[in-house]
Amino acid sequence: MKHATWFVAVAFVVLSGMAVAQLIGSTRVVAQVPFEFMVANKIVPAGECEVQAITMDGQTLVIRNAEAKVGLFSGSSQAESKQNASNYALVFKHYGEHYFLSEIRLQGSKITYRLPESKLEVELRAQNVSATEETLRASLK
Where would I find the H helices in 1-141? Predict the structure, then answer.
């Protein structure tokens, strides 16, 4: 009986993780971004931005601006917040006139997909340039 309880708990954790991975993998998170921003040391122009996981574990994301014909891949890591996200969102770090995509939040999930810092962002932080966080609401497509 003890093993059955343990198995049920492990199965629940695994299945909930798979559900989140499938959610971002099978859908696209879309937002209208009014500024250009950087991901993986590349600039993405302002406009409609789509983010989609291309691996089941959500470790690799594709970020697209179809109108500008820009698409790129980025690694990501997952972090867990204390509470579920209230909506879909793209989160940017803003240093002066530079924006960097840093997180993707999924409505109803505690999982946040975090993108690695670009070289320019690391340099700006090293120069003690202050950063703010800009959150843009997104939707599913």
Answer: 2-26, 119-126
Closest to 65 (Cα-Cα) out of 36, 86, 40, 92 = 36
Q: What type of residue sits at position 40?
A: A
pLDDT band per the 50, 70, 90 thresholds, residue 13: very low
Q: Which residues contact 52 (CB under 8 A, 6 or more apart)?
A: 24, 25, 27, 28, 29, 61, 62, 64
- 104 membership: H or E segment, kind and range: strand 98-105
d(CA 81, CA 4): 29
| Half-sphere exposure in the Cβ direction for 10 (13 Å, CA) | 6
Torsion-angle region of residue 137: left (phi > 0), alpha (psi -120 to 50) or beta?
Answer: beta
Q: State residue 1's pLDDT score.
A: 54
- Give phi and psi for 10, each to the nearest 5: -65, -45
Give the Cα separation of 56 and 33 in Å (integer): 26
18, two tokens: 């798979």
